[in-house]
Write a structure and sequence with these properties.
InterPro entries: Mur_ligase_C_dom_sf, MurCDEF_pg_biosynth. One of its GO terms (molecular function) is acid-amino acid ligase activity. The protein is of the alpha/beta class. It is built from five helices and four strands. It has a single domain, classed as Mur ligase, C-terminal domain (Protein-Tyrosine Phosphatase, Chain A, Alpha-Beta Complex), CATH 3.90.190. Strand 2, helix 3 and strand 3 form a beta-alpha-beta unit.
Amino acid sequence: MVFQPYRVYRTRDLQAELAAALAIADEVIVLEVFGPGEVRQPGEGGIALTAAVDLPAGAKVFVPSWEDVPAEVVRRAKVGDVVVTMGAPPISLMGDELLAALEPSGA
């Protein structure tokens, strides 16, 4: 699962619910919150959400940079895996990047 939270206040206010939903996945990659014009306070955002997900440390990771996500997916994905992207509107644009990155590996 690749998840980009949407809006700082939503991520903060719904952190427990989001973390519980993300914990259903086998592995989770969390990006920073997409919140144009919003300011994150200390303890808010993608790092805090990642920490709240009840998965083993090796099964969850915070990847703040969009450009680094495809390499992280390639590192984790195995043949037969399903990679799901969810969250803020820009995440729908990542599918083609992930497919291109996964193609050479055969995953």
